[in-house]
Amino acid sequence: MSAQPYGSAARAYLTAGYWPLPLPARKKASPPEGYTGRSGREVSAEDVDRWLAENRSGNIGLRLPRGVAGIDVDAYKDERHVAAWEELTARLGPLPDAPWCSSRDDGISGVRLFRVPEDWEAAGKLPEGGNGVSPGEVIQWHHRYVVCPPSIHPGTGRAYRWRSGSITKVADLPALPQPWLMALSVAAMPAQQPAPRTGPQASGRPGDDFNERADWLTDVLGPHGWELHHEAGGTLYVTRPGKSAREGHSATIGHSKDGADRLYVFSAAAAPFEMETPYTKFAAWALLNHGGDYQAAARELGRTGYGSQPGPAPASAAPAGDDGGPWPAQARQPWRAEPPEMGPHPADQPQTDGSSALAPVVEIGGRRHPEPLTELGFARRLVDKHGEQLRYVVPWNRWLVWNGASWEPDADGHVHRCMKLIAREVHTALIRGKADLDTIRAAKRAESSSGVKGALTLAATEPEIAITPDRLDAHPYLLNCRNGVVDLRTGELLEHDPALLLTKMARAPYEPDAEGAVFAKFLERIQPGEDMRLFIRRLLGLSLEGKVTAHILPIFYGTERTGRARSLTP
C-alpha cells in the first residue's frame, strides 16, 4: 500500500494517455476546479508537476480521455445489482478481458476500461434489468472520473488494484463490442415521456420542466454517488460520495421555510457544490453533468424529452460499412447535442467539412448558412454557447460573469477560456472532418492570441452581450440574498435570475420567520426606549431599498461603546 498514491503513479498514468487528477488523501471527491465536465481542461505535464509538488499523498482521480469509456459495476450493493449485471451480460454477450480497477474482492464490482469511438456518448446509467435496477453506469471524459490504484478507499481503507497487475496504455485497451456500443449509447435510450403534471402549467423551457418532473435521487444525485441517508418531516437527508452513512448526512432537500424543493449543501467537501448554497434540480444537474454550462444542459434535456421545445431532427443514417475502425459507422453519434438551428438548413447543400456542428447559422440571401470562420463568426459562436452567462459593460470595458446567484467581474479569465475552448473545438472538428487546408488554417488563426482577442472585442458589442451600467441593480425593491431574491414589497422569495442583472448580494440567506434574537438584544442594550428601537428598525429597513423614499439624514451620536458603528456594520 503506497503512502503517496498520486506521487507514485501520476506520471505513469499521464504517459499511458490518461488525465490524472489529484484528490485529497483517502477521499473520492474534490478534484482541482476547471478540470472536469464538458468544459474541463485537459491535464498537461505541467499540471501534474505542479500537483506533485503540492499533494503527493493524495488519491488519484483518473479522468478518461476522449475515446475511452469505463463500465462501472456496483455489484457490491446487493443481490439485485448482481442479478441486473448478469442479465445485461447475458443479453449483450461477454465483455473481452479489460483493465479492471477495484478495491473490492466480490469478483464483479469495479471499473473496466474500453476503447470507444471518440464521438460516441453513453446514456450514463447502465440499462436496468428486469428487476428495475441499474447495475452501474458508464464513465467518460465529460462524466465522472475513476478513483484508481494505488488510491485508498475512504470507507474501507483498502487499496485500489488493477486486476491486470499494471497500468494499461490507452492504445492497448480492448474495443467495446458493437452490441454494447449500441445498447449503452444515449441514442438508444427512449425519450422520457412527460409525467402527468399537477398545479400550474410549467413553461416550455427544459430546465423548468426538469425542475418539475425529475427525481432528486434517481435523476440528479444518485448517478453521481449521492445516497439517501434518511427522510423525516418531508425533508430528504442525503450523503455525499465518499462519505459513510455512519458519518452523517451532507445536505438536505426540501428543508426550507418557503417549501421550495431545493438542495442545500452544508459540507465543504461536496464538490462541485458550494457550501451553504441552495440549488434547484436543474442547477445541480447542470453543475454535475455540464460543469455549470446551463445552455448545454438545457440542450441535452430538451433532446431527452424535457420542455415543450422540439429537439433536433435525427441525423440521417450513415452509410453502411466500415471505414477501417473497430466499430461500424452506425454505432457512432455526435458527442454534443446542439439546438435545431445549429445544423444546416434543408435547402442548403450538405456540409462535409465537419464545422457546421459547432457553428450557429446566419441568414444570407434568404438562406441559412453556418457562421463563417471569421472573428465575427467566432464571436457569434461565443454568444450562442455562453450568451446567457456573459455580459459586457461597455463604458467600463469590463466583462461580467453569472455565478448562479449574481453577476460578478471576470477576475480569472473565464471569458477568454470560453473563447479558446470554442476555437479549439471548431479547429478539431475540421481536422477530423478532413476539411481543406485553407479552411483548417482559417480555424487555426482563431486559436491565436490575436484571434481570441479579436473575437472577444466583437462579441463585447453584440446586442445579447453589451449593456450599460444603468441596467445593473436597477430594481429598487429586490434584495439579492444567498438563497434567492426577496421582493421587498411582498416578502416573496424568488429564484436567482440572470435577467435581473443583480451584482450585489447580502451575505445571509432570507429567513422570513427568523426571530432575530441577537439583534433584538443588541438594540435593547444600546437603546432602552422602545420608540427609538422601532425607529432604528424602520431606518435600517429603508436602507434595503434601492431608491430614496424618505428624505432624511440620520446622524448617530453618543458616547463611546453605545453601538453607533456596530448598528451600521453589515
The N- and C-terminal alpha carbons lie at a distance of 51 Å
What is the helical fraction, as a range of percent?
A: 25-40%
Please mark out the parts with pLDDT under 50 across 5 or more consecutive residues, or reply none. Answer: 190-203, 309-358, 364-368
How many beta-strand segments?
22
**What is the molecular shape?**
globular
- pLDDT averaged residue by residue: 80
Rg from Cα: 27 Å
Number of continuous helical runs: 14
Could you list some keywords that capture this structure?
570 residues, five-stranded antiparallel beta sheet, 26% helix, globular, 4 domains, alpha+beta
Verbal overview:
The protein has 570 residues and is α+β, with helices and mostly antiparallel strands. It folds into 4 domains: 5-188, no CATH class; 218-303, no CATH class; 352-470, no CATH class; 517-568, no CATH class. It contains 14 helices and 22 strands. A hairpin with a 2-residue loop joins strand 20 (478-481) and strand 21. Helix 10 runs antiparallel to helix 11. Residues 190-203, 309-358 and 364-368 have low confidence and may be disordered.
Write the layout of secondary structure elements.
Blueprint: H1 5-15, E1 19-22, H2 45-54, E2 60-63, E3 68-73, H3 79-92, E4 100-102, E5 110-115, E6 136-139, E7 146-148, E8 161-162, H4 178-184, H5 206-213, H6 216-221, E9 227-232, E10 235-239, E11 251-253, E12 263-265, E13 277-279, H7 281-290, H8 294-303, E14 361-364, E15 367-370, H9 375-386, E16 390-393, E17 398-402, E18 407-409, H10 414-432, H11 437-445, H12 449-459, E19 466-467, E20 478-481, E21 484-487, E22 493-494, H13 517-526, H14 530-542
Parallel strand pairs: 16-19
Antiparallel strand pairs: 1-2, 2-7, 3-5, 3-6, 4-5, 4-8, 9-10, 10-11, 11-12, 12-13, 14-15, 16-17, 17-18, 20-21, 21-22
